[in-house]
Specification:
It is a single chain. The protein is built from 10 helices and 9 strands. The protein is globular, with a radius of gyration of 17 Å. Helix 7 (about 145-155) packs across helix 10 and helix 8 packs parallel to helix 10 (about 200-215). The N and C termini lie far apart (about 40 Å). By secondary structure, the chain is of the alpha/beta class.
């Protein structure tokens, strides 16, 4: 029986995905998925999936938001990456941006409204939230990650030197590829052509999610925070980081 793991990152109306057979690292896939369920129910039937999307949504936002976001934000302090505040569940499931702003302000202290950039990715959050609420078994497989938390961890808990977008893009992408190779992902997978319709940064983020999925499955990933929180439905509120070397600095 093969043990496939997978990583997913949102990309232009779909999901950038990569899969790896833990028992035969020469077997891997890089694909574009329309829905998360397409991967979950696919022929590989992954035993663990790392996904760059918030899991575990609060009904009411207090202060700066979810405990996982606060922990990740503290870890990434001083670097280039940011962690956007996740709006309350009602706002995530709103039918329009205007409705989402109203619902978010009504269920947050102090009141805040999601940015349009945040609203534009709520379709991904809704999809995963609906999947986990309707399919209990999926909760054992799908886990939240943050690619830049993963890359920083692989870089010895130090900020990366270059961004993966903008004028530093090529240097930043190369830096991240090197970190993935050094972390033990097959070089052939890291250097393989990405699927059509998937950006280079999204593909690398999916690879980072895959690497964290490996450490989750092997029982060595680190939760942010520790212990994880829970939302009203019992979904974990935690961002998983790779094992790295030693404890995560506070």
């Amino acid at each position: 029986m093969t043990r496939w793991i997978a990583g997913l990152d949102g990309c232009r109306g779909a999901w950038a995905g990569v899969l790896l057979d833990l028992d035969d690292p020469g077997r891997y896939r890089a694909m574009r998925f329309t829905r998360v369920a397409d991967l979950l129910d696919g022929p590989e039937a992954p035993v663990c999936i790392g996904i760059d999307v918030p899991i575990g949504l609060p009904d009411h936002i207090e202060g700066r938001g979810r405990v996982a976001d606060s922990a990740a934000r503290a870890y990434l302090a001083g670097g280039r990456s940011s962690v956007f505040p996740v709006p309350p569940r009602a706002a995530v499931h709103a039918g329009s941006y205007e409705e989402a702003k109203v619902l978010s302000r009504a269920a947050s202290t102090p009141p805040f409204a999601p940015s349009i950039q945040c609203w534009n990715i709520t379709r991904y959050i809704r999809e995963v939230d609906d999947l986990l609420l309707s399919r209990f078994e999926a909760r054992r497989v799908i886990h939240e990650v943050h690619p830049e938390v993963a890359f920083r961890r692989l870089n010895g808990d130090r900020p990366l030197t270059s961004a993966k977008k903008g004028p530093e893009r090529q240097v930043g992408l190369a830096e991240r590829r090197a970190l993935l190779r050094n972390a033990g992902l097959p070089a052939s997978l890291v250097d393989a052509a990405r699927p059509r319709g998937v950006g280079a940064d999204d593909h690398l983020d999916a690879l980072a999610a895959l690497m964290v999925a490996r450490d989750i499955f092997l029982g060595r990933a680190i939760p942010l925070p520790d212990p994880p929180g829970r939302d009203r439905h019992g979904l974990p509120v935690v961002i998983w980081a790779p094992a790295g070397h030693g404890p995560i600095p506070c």
